[in-house]
Amino acid sequence: MSHDNLGLNTTCVHIGEVKDEQFKSAISPIYVSTSYAFQDVDQKRYPRSFNTPNQEALSKKLAALEHTDRALIFGSGMAAVSSMLFALLEAGDHLVVQNTIYGGTSNFIREEFPKRGIEFTFTEGYEVADFEKAIQSNTKVIYIETPSNPLLTITDVRGVAQLGKSKGIITAIDNTFASPVNQNPIDFGIDLVMHSATKYLGGHSDILAGVVVGPNDLMEKVWRVGRNFGGNLSDFTVWMLERSIKTLGLRVKAQNRNAKKIAKFLEAHEDVKQVYYPGLKSHPQHALAKSQMKGFGGMLSFELADGLDALEFQQALQLIKPSLSLAGVETTTLSPHLTSHSLMTAEERAAIGISDNLIRFSTGIECKEDLIKDLKQALAKVKGENVMA
Fold first, then answer.
1. Full-model pTM
2. pLDDT for 221-234, tens place per residue?
3. Which residues are identified as catalytic?
4. I need a labelling partner for 230 at 20 to 30 A (CA). Which of 12, 49, 166, 365 fits?
5. pLDDT tens digits, residue range 177-224?
6. How far is CA 13 from CA 5, 32, 33, 365, in A?
7. Looking at residue 234, what DSSP letter applies?
8. Cα separation of 187 and 315, whole Å?
9. Any idea which of 110-119, 321-330, 341-350 has the lowest mean pLDDT?
10. How far is CA 28 from CA 46, 73, 208, 213, 249, in A?
11. Would the pLDDT of 387 be above 60?
12. What is the mean pLDDT of residues 8-35?
């Protein structure tokens, strides 16, 4: 059967399997060897070259999910983004980067680029005009993230892609928050897509991984740098990631539904000051999100009313877990100023709207009624109200 035009769940399950020709097992076998034959073989395999059987097979699944040619799997999201950007930029080049991006990426650019003579400009905003304004004569890459972490700002993917093509500039995106289920930037003209596969692709809070996907010519450059940096993933974790992606469509769609219900509940609650979720009609870029996303995702953020402490609220939660990462099947919260954006200064966080009272909320697949009940009791407790058992 042709692999073209398969449905999402079929792609998640069947593309990129390692065929067990000996025992005909239903799942991919694991090849954990670090040493392969070099004589009379089609290619010389070595884990750091991203070409072990499990790595190669899973890469096909990831490329198919993002509608492109090739994928590489790294040991973390930061290994993926650093390899990608260093493959595209060298001393004297300039990067235009969105101001509302993951704090780890922002810190990486600010700390590592000056050491290598690579120039960069963070945009003043996230409109297409903001990116065009930041372009210089030596700009080689535009880097965006949408929806952004943690404020869920929405960037016009098609508009940025068109801007890049009109100027001969490569465009790259962090598509982690959306996942391939909700957004496929390649379809809008973006050149390279990266994911922290630790998040939705892994989905069970037990995998650390990163992914870059794109056309063969650009991915060859990423492969050469990635091979030198040695940031590939172990084959056991590659196997676990393949297992996880089989349920990606089911998980993310359930998280989409829950997140929208939670966002509406919080928006209507008197003790919640602000909710950031692109699926709400009140979100300033709801129409743009609707035009480029198939679902609005499982991530949202919110601020409590003045006088209510965000950390005390999270400690009062009983079912929902205050936890560092996101996108697992379990619902979690965190305070970005102490975690994902702690490497930024207070001034840098304030400039992009991240307050100390902001709570990032990663919606899981639990029953939405149970999640809302937990939120209600925690909100009551942090106000000092009596909570019925």
1. 0.94
2. 999 999 999 999 99
3. 48, 102, 174, 199
4. 12
5. 999 999 999 999 999 999 999 999 999 999 999 999 999 999 999 999
6. 14, 22, 25, 19
7. P
8. 42
9. 341-350
10. 19, 17, 20, 22, 19
11. no
12. 94
- Cβ neighbors of 21 (< 8 A, separation 6 or more) are none
Asked whether 331 and 299 are in contact (CB, 8 A), the reply is no
Torsion angles phi and psi, residue 366, rounded to 5: -65, 175
The residue type of 264 is K
**Of the candidates 122, 115, 123, the residue with the CA atom closest to the CA atom of residue 91:** 115
104-108, 202-206, 373-377: which has the minimum mean pLDDT?
104-108
Note the helical H segments in 66-115.
77-88, 103-112
Sequence letter at residue 169 = I
For residues 344 and 310, the answer to whether their CB atoms sit within 8 Å is no
Beta strands in 53-203 (DSSP E): 70-74, 94-97, 119-122, 139-145, 170-174, 192-196
Q: Indicate the angle between helix axes 53-65 and 235-245, nearest 10 degrees.
A: 30
**Coil, helix or strand for 276?**
strand
Question: Nearest 5°: CA angle at 251, between 255 and 60?
Answer: 130
For 248-286, how does the pLDDT look when each residue is reduced to its tens digit (9 = 90+)? Answer: 999 999 999 999 999 999 999 999 999 999 999 999 999
Between CA 192 and CA 185 the distance in angstroms is 8
**Residue bearing tokens 């070099």:** 38
Residue 352 has pLDDT above 80, yes or no: no
Q: Which long-range contacts (CB under 8 A, 24 or more apart) does 305-309 make?
A: 305/270, 305/271, 305/272, 305/273, 306/273, 308/271, 308/357, 308/379, 308/382, 308/383, 309/357, 309/382
Residue 248, amino acid: L
Task: Let me know: does 371 contact 363? Beta carbons within 8 Å.
Answer: yes
Residue 5 tokens, joined: 């035009």
Instruction: Using the predicted structure, report yes or no on whether residue 287 has a pLDDT greater than 60.
Output: yes
Tokens describing residue 22: 């000996």
User: From residue 217, how far is each of 66, 95, 214 by CA, in Å?
Assistant: 16, 20, 8
